[in-house]
Amino acid sequence: MNSHEVKFILDADVDIEMNNKLIEILSICFADQPIFNKQRYFKELPQYRWYLENNNEIIGHVALHKKEINTETTKLIIGGIAEVCVHPDHRGKGFVKLLLSHAHNFSIKNGYIFSMLFGDTNVYSSSGYKTIDNTIKYLDHISGEWKVEIIKDAMIKDISDVEWPSGLINLNGPTF
Ligand SMILES: CC(C)(COP(=O)(O)OP(=O)(O)OC[C@H]1O[C@@H](n2cnc3c(N)ncnc32)[C@H](O)[C@@H]1OP(=O)(O)O)[C@@H](O)C(=O)NCCC(=O)NCCS
Is the pTM of this model over 0.85? Predict the structure, then answer.
């Protein structure tokens, strides 16, 4: 591998070859989600992606959604991290932290106030994420209904001086 060179692509620039490479890694890593056999996103297309390659195959990947969310009193622009994955042959080398650091730097540079994801604390706490206990309003992408509940996997990382708010968080769309 070209010594951990993290590459960036706008999703809008993904061509057929890249689309197929993304589908390949996503369908390997998320084998329980057959949707990735035919498309490179779970619920919504992200705007940005970072990835690692080896022999012209993607072996690590994170996606980023720019999201406008609402608290009870204000709105916040956040980076929503999604589709974090590392090929089984390349796990345990710290690639998650490496890939996330690029997404975080991008988010900071672009003035996003928080980074947010839904995932396992064991994987993300060393990258600075902490669980939140806010009630979250989101669109259930299968039923098309809005749901309001505490989501135990919800985590945020502080990337600005703003303190994470208490109370209801409206994602204005699906989880990511
Ligand atoms: C989760 C996944 C991305 C981790 O890849 P990896 O290359 O092993 O990750 P890293 O080496 O960068 O490790 C990052 C942290 O996660 C921890 N970790 C990795 N896999 C773990 C697992 N299965 N259970 C618990 N912790 C795990 C590591 O110990 C490490 O913690 P540390 O930084 O505190 O030491 C990879 O297993 C994968 O692609 N899984 C399938 C897709 C998936 O579940 N993605 C996450 C969706 S939220």
Answer: yes
d(CA 125, CA 117): 11
Q: How many Å lie between the centroid of ligand 1 and the Cα of residue 73?
A: 35
Strand 114-118 to 154-158 pairing: antiparallel
Looking at the chain, the whole-number percentage of residues with pLDDT higher than 90 is 98
Look up the domain containing 166 and give its range.
Answer: 7-170
Classified as helix, coil or strand, 35 is helix
The CATH number for 103's domain is: 3.40.630.30
86-123 confidence digits (pLDDT tens):
999 999 999 999 999 999 999 999 999 999 999 999 99
In a domain, 48, yes or no: yes
Output the CA 63–ligand 1 centroid distance in Å: 16
Nearest CA to ligand 1 atom 33: 126
